[in-house]
Amino acid sequence: MYDQPRPNPPLTAMTFDQMLERVRYEGAYPTRERAEEAVHNVLAALGRQVTGGERVDLAQCLPVEAALALTAQVPDTEQLTGWGFVKDLAARTGVSPAIARWDAGAVLAVVTRLAGPDLLARVLHRLPDGYALLFGQPELRRPQLAA
């Protein structure tokens, strides 16, 4: 049986070790263990927010260990804004919101490269406002419907 073409292939295949080194570089973490902690925490938090086909496609773009961190979480019934995501991450990990924001930026910058522009656009479209900046993208205002 032939593999079906994927509509959004990853830009660069990456092993989990390569992902950790990339996150370590992006976040200027002193150790690989600290980078791994950030990856697991941020992807678990993201797994509580991303649903549907975007969740499946995003998991397929990640190394297996990272995909498991993302998909092991049950999505929350209420989606958080980008700032709410950072505050929730800080509360769950026991760090300040500034550190949680730093961790999110370091991990999601690598996720952005792995996902590619098409999948990233789909993920951001399904999430509330505030996530684009976390992924290192410009935050575009959504059109308001006339009342």
Briefly summarize what is shown.
The protein is mainly alpha-helical. The protein is built from 7 helices and no strands. The chain is globular, with a radius of gyration of 15 Å.
Helix fraction bin: 55-70%
Give the low-pLDDT segments: 1-11
First-last Cα distance: 52 Å
Mean pLDDT comes to 89
The topology string of helices and strands comes to HHHHHHH
- How does the helix and strand content classify structurally? mainly alpha
Number of helices: 7
Silhouette: globular
Main sheet, how many strands, which sense, barrel?
Answer: none
DSSP strand count: 0
Percent strand: under 5%
**Rg on CA atoms, Å:** 15 Å
Question: How would you characterize this protein structure?
Answer:
With 147 residues, this protein is mainly alpha-helical. It has 7 helices and no strands. The protein has helices spanning 16-27, 32-47, 52-61, 64-71, 82-93, 97-126, 131-134. 33% of the residues are buried. Mean pLDDT is 89; it is low at 1-11.
